[in-house]
Amino acid sequence: MDTVRGLQQAVGAHREKRLILIDTQGYAASDMDEASELARFLSRDAFAEVHVVVPASMRNADLSRTIDRFEVFSPSKIIFTRLDETASCGAMISESVRTGKAISFLGTGQRIPEDLEPATVPYLLDAVSERRAERALSAA
User: pTM to 2 decimals?
Assistant: First the structure.
């Protein structure tokens, strides 16, 4: 959709669906004024659940800055992608704690939706333990 009005019409046409996923364009820091109209539209829908999607492979400071920049959308949860490209999950956990936002899904590969996993506590613990074990083995 090129406009919020077009998005509003598309959502209205599919209102009976159980789930509607909206993937917004990426916004640079200088484009956030343009994002405010979309953010207002999403905030008016009581059923909208907004997730911010960020790569798990991003450096801690960049991850924090990116998540903070998208606060205009009032996301309630975080989706981390590119778990297959990182050896550390610490930044993910730290950002979840820092922001108070739950981690909802994890992207574990290139194929979506096949490589999208619900972020359960056992899955996160396994991911952290597995990466810690991989580092210990490679250091030996």
Answer: 0.80
